[in-house]
Automatic annotation (TrEMBL):
Source organism (scientific name): Polluticaenibacter yanchengensis
Catalytic activity from the UniProt record: dTDP-alpha-D-glucose = dTDP-4-dehydro-6-deoxy-alpha-D-glucose + H2O
Family classification: Belongs to the NAD(P)-dependent epimerase/dehydratase family. dTDP-glucose dehydratase subfamily.
GO molecular function: dTDP-glucose 4,6-dehydratase activity
PANTHER family the UniProt entry points to: DTDP-D-GLUCOSE 4,6-DEHYDRATASE-RELATED
SUPFAM superfamilies referenced in this protein's UniProt entry, alphabetically: NAD(P)-binding Rossmann-fold domains
InterPro entries named among the record's database cross-references: dTDP_Gluc_deHydtase, NAD(P)-bd_dom, NAD(P)-bd_dom_sf
Record protein name field: dTDP-glucose 4,6-dehydratase
Length: 352
């Protein structure tokens, strides 16, 4: 049995964070799990309803830009470890409002590093600061190949530039102050509780409501999709067994062009909704491209497989099936998150 820990998980009310919190709360009853989240448009405590009363779960409604509040949380819960997921996560929003990404993703991360450094005060025994990052820091693979842990950083969007910067700060705290840091860079996640501004949940929601499916550019952009629960399992492994000061790439070896993925989604949704095969295909609408749109991402996940034994546990078919069923069975959740602030943002999107 693992020893007791008091783990701070930031961004635990968001998409990936809620899966990580649920996994840790249920799998490790000996750990105290403190979910720290500002509850932005993307954060939603409904995502954690099933575990909110667990005796080892705690919630702190705190913004990582608030230094005093961060320090208070470290002291109150005697935090021993950090798994940092809180971030502004949507590329399109970063094109509209880059500064929000600078504040939360860069300054917020440095604030968190500072709070950990101050609280741990040079005693790094049994401590760990784990930063969750993205493959987007590596830029775009236009001419084949894969991203490995040694690929040079070349971020193209304000989002990926802010994540690259936060990765560098985490690494620098490891080198400069000896903080036991570790970083992982993951490909595109999909699954339950994904906010319907990102491709898969947005298109599921639009197909349900017979709304246009806005395909950026020619639709021939490629992403490597990973089921969110498999990312959470990888995070569990890196947290417990990853080498300090190291980085791990996480991906599904599952590349799809957007247009092929969208056609598959339409086929599956039409079937589930009792529509004729291909009935929703006319919803596909080619719109102007995302500025700075990265052509292709593809992760080489050999290192985490060889060193830690991780590999995806579900196929894309299985994961997509579970995801579609989840959205069809959770229409109230979908309705709640697509009203209000989200709607206002959606209306001012440049592709509308
Ligand atoms: P998300 O947008 O669904 O959730 C982000 C969470 O962070 C929300 O709960 C939000 O309320 C919280 N948050 C935002 N700003 C905050 C602040 N200033 N203080 C405290 N909390 C704040 O994001 P996600 O898709 O779950 O991504 C989580 C992390 O994983 C991010 O760091 C992201 O860069 C990274 N990541 C995401 C993917 C993906 O495909 N979604 C892939 C690789 C890496
Ligand atoms: O690669 C990891 C990254 O994946 C994460 O770091 C980000 O947080 C996450 O949002 C995701 O970024 P993408 O930009 O790849 O995801 P998004 O769902 O926004 O877009 C996926 C692809 O679909 C991309 O090529 C743009 C395209 N797209 C997206 C939307 C929302 C469309 O064609 N139409 C759309 O309406």
């Amino acid at each position: 049995m693992e020893q007791s820990k008091n783990i701070l998980i930031t961004g635990g009310a968001g998409f990936i964070g809620s899966h990580v919190v649920r996994l840790f709360v249920t799998k490790y009853p000996q750990y105290n799990i403190v979910n720290l989240d500002a509850l932005t448009y993307a954060g939603n405590l409904e995502n954690l309803k099933d575990i909110e009363n667990a005796p080892n779960y705690f919630f702190e409604h705190v913004n990582i830009l608030d230094n005093a509040a961060l320090e208070a949380v470290f002291a109150k819960h005697s935090i021993s470890d950090v798994i940092h997921l809180a971030a502004e996560s949507h590329v399109d929003r970063s094109i509209l409002s880059p500064l929000d990404f600078v504040y939360t993703n860069i300054i917020g991360t440095v604030n968190l590093l500072q709070a950990a450094k101050k609280s741990w005060n040079g005693n790094y025994d049994n401590k760990r600061f784990y930063h969750i990052s993205t493959d987007e820091v590596y830029g775009s693979l236009d001419n084949g190949g894969f991203f490995t842990e040694t690929t040079a950083y070349s971020p193209n969007s304000p989002y990926s530039a802010s994540k690259a910067s936060s990765d560098h700060f985490v690494r620098a705290y490891g080198e400069t102050y000896g903080m036991p840091t570790v970083i992982s860079n993951c490909s595109n996640n999909y699954g339950p509780y994904h906010f319907p501004e990102k491709l898969i949940p947005l298109f599921i929601n639009n197909i349900i409501n017979n709304k246009p499916l806005p395909v950026y550019g020619d639709g021939l952009f490629t992403r490597d999709w990973l089921y969110v629960k498999d990312h959470a399992l990888a995070i569990d492994m890196v947290f417990h067994n990853g080498k300090v000061h190291d980085t791990y790439n996480i991906g599904g070896f599952n590349e799809w062009t957007n247009i092929d993925l969208i056609k598959l989604l339409v086929e599956k949704m039409d079937h589930k909704l009792g529509r004729a095969t291909g009935e929703s295909l006319p919803l596909i609408t080619f719109v102007k491209d995302r500025p700075g749109h990265d052509k292709r991402y593809a992760i080489d996940a050999t290192k985490i497989n060889k060193e830690l034994g991780w590999k995806p546990s579900v196929t894309f078919e299985e994961g997509l099936e579970e995801t579609i069923d989840w959205y069809l069975n959770n229409s109230e959740w979908l309705e709640n998150v697509t009203s209000g602030a989200y709607q206002k943002y959606y209306e001012q999107q440049y592709h509308s």
